[in-house]
Design brief:
Keywords: Decarboxylase, Lyase, Pyridoxal phosphate. The protein is about 40% helix and about 15% strand. The protein is α/β, with parallel strands linked by helices and about 475 residues long. The protein binds pyridoxal-5'-phosphate. The site of pyridoxal-5'-phosphate (PLP) has 16 residues, from helix 5.
């Protein structure tokens, strides 16, 4: 590694990225390339001799950028946001520069210790119960994704109960969630060996705001116990992926407590909003939870990846996930003086991700982060008003946080608007002027407009709405609706 070369190339790369952000609005938000476009543009083997840095940069401009969907565009309204910020970016730089693999405390004490401290900071901003802080039996850990967070706590809960009732009772273990839970939960159950027939999906509807109905949950537990099964895990959501709906944590939390079940709260997207006192009530009931997760990489200005998971009792994770081969043994770990985060996650190796979260929290400060969230929620409310002012559209469910769910109304019966709305979505996205996505709720095709990109301003929301309206008009004319 030649430091002077790093300095030279590093400056050029920072310039390149700064220019990218400056000109980001000129790119189509959704990449317009066709599958395998890149195969024709690049050689089919790695070069034998080093190439020039400038040639690589030129290829990024000409060959890579066209195949990029611009998540950081102010006109990106798809899925949920994946935030980037200068602070997060700089944190990533220092993480890459140091490039430590901090699986055990000794492999970089600062990596473990900063993570413990920063997750305590964030827990305090979210006003999580003290049991989630590192001062007790629990604490926070950064996972790559909310999916990994669900998996590790499911494994911990599974092994905890099997330790009590015997490992051959796996076929009796039952898990619960609503039909709005993220697909990550099903995947985690598959990996954890939960029997498919023991996966209870509680149906939700508009009457419960697409949250879990506690009565249905209680009844399902009762029925399973009658059948000789063992309810042991609930995956609840604050801010579901389809509609941002919120499960009633207090009621369902009480039920899990009565039945001695592990209660996980997945607030991957909406958790960030709960740093604002006026939205913190969505987490009321988190005191019943055994584990809680939110993705700072979604809506808290921290570059991917940074999924924050807190548990009340870390020993459940460690008992399930710890391995201790000879080559990793060291005095600090043996004396149980330190946290070794390798035992709180699936992989061994781990990046120094707390640096970027620490930099975000320090370089913004909590008040600016709260204002950032509030502004997006304000913009989502503006978008909702715009939709409501056009009688060709309807708002499908209450706008929660910064997600607006709406649909173009069919004036004749075309499969209840399925084709019409999917046509509109494709037409809008292929303009490249904005990108948004869809879902199905109560068997209806719904358009989702998720505000949350760091660069989005009011003008982007207004202009995007105009594009949607124009495309709706074109489709209406073409199909003589
Ligand atoms: N949970 C919820 C509620 C989500 O909205 C998402 C993604 O949007 C996930 C989990 C999965 O997130 P990740 O990509 O971090 O696994």
């Amino acid at each position: 590694m030649d430091s002077e070369q790093l300095r030279e190339y590093g400056h050029k790369m920072v310039d390149f990225i700064a220019d990218y952000y400056k000109s980001i609005e000129k790119f189509p938000v959704l990449s317009q390339v066709q599958p395998y476009y890149l195969k024709d543009l690049l050689p089919d083997a790695a070069p034998d001799q080093p190439e020039k840095f400038q040639d690589v940069l030129d290829d990024i401009t000409k060959k890579i950028i066209p195949g990029v969907t611009h998540w950081q565009s102010p006109n990106f309204f798809g899925y949920y946001p994946g935030n980037s910020s200068i602070a997060g970016f700089l944190g990533e730089m220092i993480c890459s520069g140091l490039n430590v693999i901090g699986f055990s405390w000794i492999t970089s004490p600062a990596s473990t210790e900063l993570e413990v401290i920063v997750l305590d900071w964030l827990a305090k901003l979210l006003n999580l119960p003290d049991q989630f802080l590192s001062s007790g039996h629990g604490g926070g850990v950064i996972q790559g994704t909310a999916s990994e967070a669900i998996l590790v706590v499911l494994l911990a809960a599974r092994d905890k109960i099997l330790g009590r009732i015997g490992r051959n009772s796996l076929d009796k273990l039952v898990v619960y969630s609503s039909d709005q839970v993220h697909a990550a939960f099903k995947k985690a159950c598959q990996i954890a060996g939960i029997y498919t027939e023991n996966f209870r999906v509680l149906k939700t509807d508009a009457s419960s705001g697409y949250g879990i109905d506690p009565k249905k949950f209680d009844q399902a537990i009762h029925d399973d116990m009658e059948a000789g099964l063992i309810p042991f895990f609930l995956c609840s959501t604050v801010g579901t992926t389809s509609s941002a709906s919120v499960d009633p944590l207090v009621e369902i939390g009480q039920i899990t407590e009565e039945n001695d079940m592990w209660f996980h709260v997945d607030a991957a997207y909406a958790g960030s909003a709960c740093i604002c006192p006026e939205y913190r009530h969505y987490l009321d009931g988190v005191e019943y939870a055994d584990s809680f997760c939110m993705n700072a990489h979604k809506w808290l200005l921290t570059n991917f990846d940074c999924s924050a998971l807190w548990v009340k009792d870390s020993s459940a994770l460690v008992n399930s996930l710890s391995t201790n081969p000879e080559f990793l043994k060291n005095k600090m770990s043996e004396q149980k003086k330190v946290v070794d985060f390798k035992d709180w996650q699936i992989p061994l190796g781990r990046r120094f991700r707390s640096l970027k979260l620490w930099m975000v929290l320090r370089l913004y400060g909590a008040e600016n982060l709260r204002e950032y969230i509030r502004n997006h929620i304000k913009l989502a409310n503006l978008f909702e008003q715009l939709v409501r002012s056009d009688s060709r559209f309807e708002i499908v469910c209450p706008t929660l946080f910064s997600l607006v769910c709406f649909r173009f109304l069919p004036s004749n019966d075309d499969n209840d608007g399925y084709e019409l709305n999917s046509m509109l979505l494709d037409a809008v996205n292929s303009t490249g002027q904005l990108f948004f996505t869809h879902t199905i709720i109560s068997d209806k095709y719904i358009l989702r407009f998720a505000v949350g990109a760091a660069l989005t301003e009011e003008r982007h929301v207004r202009e995007s709405w105009k594009v949607i309206q124009n495309q709706a008009t074109i489709i209406s004319r073409q199909h003589i609706l």
